[in-house]
Each structure stands twice: as C-alpha cells, then as structure tokens.
Amino acid sequence: MPDETVRCIHIGLLCVQDSPNERPLVSSIMSFLENGDISLPPPKESVYFA
C-alpha cells in the first residue's frame, strides 16, 4: 500500500477516536495532509469490538 494511503487511513482513525478531546482539530488534519513530514500520534484502541 502506498505511504499516502496508509497516512490517510491513519488520519481517519484519529478522527474517529471515542473521546472528542482525542480527535485532531481540522487545522491539524489539514497540516497532516499537506505536510507528509509531520509525525502522526498513534490512534488509541477502540473500546468497541466487531
């Protein structure tokens, strides 16, 4: 999978964190997308299981 695809999935996981306080701001998301050098925080594991 290309790095850009993995990065977009990672950002998507950050956006659906259980707690709104753990989700990035829109301005941060834009920075993540525009600058591939910015290191992304790890998403926390969900409390829900499928």
From TrEMBL:
It comes from the Eukaryota. This is S-locus receptor kinase C-terminal domain-containing protein. It comes from Aegilops tauschii subsp. strangulata (Goatgrass).
